[in-house]
Design a protein that fits this description.
The chain has six helices and three strands; from the N terminus they run αααβααββα. By secondary structure, the chain is an alpha+beta fold.
Length: 107
């Protein structure tokens, strides 16, 4: 019974900013396109055109989702000449993603 009280106390102490960030993270992981992009970037760094080809998506779709993910600091980029290469930027979120995938495969 004491453990339940500690857990409830912990959750009651979450401030609005933390709740908002957690909600944004789960929202990012709730979209199938963003999941596909993050999963690909968890395996390797990619340019937009490579993601378009690998995921069979439109360039505008990939760019829009990358902007969304970058604003949340879930992906980062680096420039090489005129090409931007993207990679995952949050190992905690990648761990959540991989755990969710493993869970789904065992259901």
């Amino acid at each position: 019974m004491e453990e339940i009280s500690k857990e409830n106390q912990y959750f009651q102490e979450l401030d609005d900013n933390t709740l908002d960030l957690v909600s944004q993270t789960f929202k990012a992981l709730s979209d199938p396109t963003r999941i596909r992009i993050l999963y690909l970037l968890s395996q390797k760094e990619c340019a937009v055109n490579e993601m378009v080809e690998s995921l069979n998506l439109k360039q505008s779709t990939v760019s829009h989702q990358l902007r969304y993910l970058k604003n949340l600091r879930l992906v980062k980029n680096r420039r090489e000449g005129t090409t931007l290469y993207y990679s995952a930027d949050d190992q905690h979120v990648l761990k959540l993603l991989k755990e969710s995938i493993e869970h789904s495969l065992h259901c």
